[in-house]
Automatic annotation (TrEMBL):
Residues 284-361 form the GHMP kinase C-terminal domain. Belongs to the GHMP kinase family. GalK subfamily. Residues 9-55 form the Galactokinase N-terminal domain. This is Galactokinase. Residues 91-178 form the GHMP kinase N-terminal domain. GO terms for molecular function: ATP binding; galactokinase activity; metal ion binding. Keywords: ATP-binding, Carbohydrate metabolism, Cytoplasm, Galactose metabolism, Kinase, Magnesium, Metal-binding, Nucleotide-binding, Transferase. Gene3D superfamilies: 3.30.230.10, GHMP kinase, C-terminal domain. It is an enzyme of class 2 (transferase). One of its GO terms (cellular component) is cytosol. Its EC number is 2.7.1.6. It comes from Macellibacteroides fermentans.
């Protein structure tokens, strides 16, 4: 993230003024996919790619914002009817409105921002943008909002101003991220715990399939429904304590096998196993056992591909190449139907794996994947 670039653009657009500089990261999720709406655990970490914004109070009741990457400038007021048309500006406007709804007093400001989180690769560029502005405005106006509320402000911005009904994980990781640590977040209680992630001798590599299949939103809703159906069947079968699939065991699921469809059973099987895999990975990391971490990643991919059926040909192909090249762990990251695989690769295998992945993938699909090397880094912060 290039601070000097942001500072020079800010200076150019806002007449040599100097403001404060803030940053927030994108994120990866090592394991724990489709567990959030089942009351389970997710296991994200902040990465060394994100958003940087320079901000200065301008003495008016207007926000003047410049997106350096899009070369686009927008002005808007701070009342509900002032919502800007540009979708990127709605993230900033939404954060301002959510702070105001919570009683925070803010004034107009000038800002220029840029990011190096790849758009559409599942690393959550929008959460990085929301967290940057939530953190910055809280700091600049001394609002005293705690970190959890900052994450919720980002989430509410998505819900109320950007039309995305997301969970809390992306914003949470962006605000709470810590260098050298992943965070296990309990999506039901919102309790969290840091676990060491210092894979000496390994690299964390994302391979972007550069495809996005259109199924995603309808398929997501269908799978969510399957999970709720299975949880209700278990609950009604003498297990009143089962609120979400997170509370269920495979034995409980087997008891209701004849009462639910084969498809609902498969979906529930994946989720129950995935909740356990997150806990297994946490245990492995505390022992520094990255081989087990990798094995669990492959198990997750298999479950997402064969039981939850949210993978696609391109992602399965990248996963197969990883296996063939001896990569320690590989899986589809995110909701599925496109996006990236996340790979835990031994240093000595790294170059050969990337070379093979690029050549084989291009031969099969006619274009190369994109490569992102990521390092686990700190969350939202003031830079200058």
């Amino acid at each position: 993230m290039d601070i000097e670039h942001v500072r020079s653009r800010f200076k150019k657009h806002f007449n040599d003024e100097v403001g404060s500089v803030y940053a927030s990261p994108g994120r990866i999720n090592l394991i724990g996919e489709h567990t959030d709406y089942n009351g389970g655990f997710v296991f994200p970490g902040a990465i060394d790619k994100g958003m940087v914004a320079e901000i200065k109070v301008n003495g008016t009741d207007k926000v003047r914002a410049y997106s350096i990457d899009l070369k686009d400038y927008v002005e808007f007021g701070l009342n509900e009817e002032d919502a800007p048309k540009a979708s990127w500006a709605r993230y900033i406007f939404g954060v301002c409105r959510e702070i105001i709804k919570r009683g925070g007093k803010i004034q107009g400001f000038d800002t220029a921002f840029a990011g190096d989180v790849p758009l559409g690769a599942g690393m959550s560029s929008s959460a990085a943008l929301e967290s940057t502005f939530a953190f910055a405005l809280n700091d600049m106006f001394n609002l005293g909002i705690d970190k959890f509320e900052l994450a919720k402000i980002g989430q509410a911005t998505e819900h109320n101003y950007c039309g995305v009904n997301c969970g809390i994980m992306d914003q949470f990781a962006s605000v709470f991220g810590k260098e050298g640590s992943l965070i296990r977040l309990d999506c039901r209680s919102l309790e969290y715990k840091y676990f060491p992630f210092k894979p000496v001798g390994y690299k964390l590599v994302l391979l972007d399939s550069v495809v996005k299949h259109e199924l995603a939103s309808s398929a997501y809703n269908k799978r969510r429904q399957s999970c709720e159906t299975a949880a209700a069947a278990i609950r009604n079968n003498n297990h009143p304590e089962v609120e979400f699939l997170r509370d269920a065991t495979m034995d409980m699921l087997k008891e209701v096998k004849d009462q639910i469809s084969a498809e609902d059973y498969m979906r529930a099987e994946y989720v129950i196993e995935e909740v356990q895999r997150v806990l297994d990975v946490c245990d492995a990391l505390e022992r520094g056992d990255y081989e087990t971490v990798g094995q669990k990643m492959y198990e997750t991919h298999h479950g997402m591909s064969k039981l939850y059926e949210v993978s696609c040909e391109e992602l399965d192909y990248l996963n197969d190449i990883a296996k063939k090249c001896g990569v320690t762990g590989s899986r589809v990251m995110g909701g599925g139907f496109g996006g990236c695989t996340i790979n835990l690769v031994k240093d000595e295998l790294h170059d050969a794996f990337i070379k093979e992945a690029f050549a084989s993938y291009k031969e099969k699909f006619g274009h190369e994947p994109k490569l992102y090397e990521v390092v686990i880094s700190d969350g939202a912060r003031k830079l200058a």
